[in-house]
Description:
This protein is an alpha/beta fold. The protein has helices at residues 10-18, 24-42, 50-65, 107-115, 157-165, 181-187, 221-231, 274-289, 305-320, 339-350, 353-366, 372-392, 418-422, 429-434, 462-474, and strands at residues 45-48, 76-80, 118-123, 170-174, 190-193, 214-218, 260-264, 293-297, 398-402, 438-446, 449-456. It has one domain: Alpha-Beta Complex (Amidase signature (AS) enzymes), CATH 3.90.1300.10. Helix content is 38%, strand content 13%. The chain has an 11-stranded mixed beta sheet with strand order 1-3-2-4-6-5-10-11-9-7-8, sandwiched between helices.
Amino acid sequence: MTDDLLGKSIAYLSKLLRNNKISSVELVDYYFDRIEKFDKQIHAFLCTDKKLAMKQSKESDNKIKDGDQGPLTGIPYMLKDNICTNNFPTTAGSQILNDFYSNYDATVVKKLNIEGAVLLGKGNLDEFAMGSSTENSSFGPTKNPWDYDYVPGGSSGGPAAAISAGFAAFSLGSDTGGSIRQPASLCGVTGLKPSYGVVSRYGLIAFGSSLDQIGPFTNNVEDSALILNAIKGRDENDPTSRDFDKDLFLDQIEDFKNLKIGIPKEYFPETLDKEIKNKITDVIDLLIEHGAEVEEVSLPHTEYALGVYYILAPSEASSNLARYDGVKYGFSDNQVSSMWERIENSRSKGFGIEVKRRIMLGTYALSSGYYDEYYGKAEQVRQLIKQELNDVFKKVDCLITPTSPTTAFKLGERTKDPMAMYASDIMTIPANIAGIPGISIPGGKVNGLPVGVQLLGSYFSERKLLSIANRIQRITDWHLDRPNLD
């Protein structure tokens, strides 16, 4: 039975558990067998704990035996290592938090514990979620399961690669400027960024507080809806979180009649790879074939989104990362003669080069005499981008775009060119700036590497967005494709 589990949906696994065709203990064994065989090459995990997973899976099996089974009871998963956990270290991929243990679980972890999900371990990421390739991790890069010479995307490269490689049934990542959708695209899996506030950020190590959002990596859209149902909702520990529909279910769309899809011309520039454009066009043609009305729309302020993001995000990071001073927790350089030298040395040695770069950018943008010129103007343009998207969604049900302007690029190809690396997120950043939901689903391959299709919806339109994406997956099979590992 375990030979047939690769890429299977959570609903399928849950049914096997309910019918006693397999136990949660056997599921954990199956995933750890794959992790032990293949993760040395991929490096998706930063840490695992089989003993703890076995304990949780036995508890889940007992619940199932007693008839107390929910949709996630006994289902193994992985967390990005910037989400706090009591029983695992939480490093954020940084030396400054090496061996740091949180004294509490993030809200999403608490909710998954209540559901009976089984945590296998924590996933690799760009340090403090700052990057687009998972090469900025202090603990070494993650590799793309489709080709070990290529990056998996970032910053949630570990969680994306884990689902692509079949190391867990689902994983959770965070998305500040595309860090769920871009690696989902490059690894050929489904990645959802919910609307800002749908999921509590309590226990997520902050990068850009007005941009960050937790979301799932899954094998299909139905699983994404299942996970979102479990982790969504108001949390008193996060004042930015919002109440959401009591139960998020998918509309069973049989065709796309009465559906209007927007194609933003700014997302299809002349510089876009022709083969990627063709893949997105194939999906658009499929929508038209099944009754959708397609309309070209314009979002002229999109060209400013990258610049706005790289003022807002580093500014917020500069403030958020000020707490890592070598005094309260984390790495501390004690071979010093003064408190100030201790703070300076701890931060200098503890942070990596990309984190330092963004702290300096943010500190400069917030400094006296420059705040209005940079951060203030960026906030003004942010509102223009947000309003522009709001206006478009009065005319169309969703937007369809490429998720990334390229397929996965080679390891080391962009590490010395920050601007080329930053441009990897050019298609995904506007959704974070506006706080709207976005999902990336597989759309085939180019030269053996996956291509992602991005759908964007209006604020709090998760149900509609997921229903449309789910219907696309019901009439295609791109999401069923998995790499052959060696």
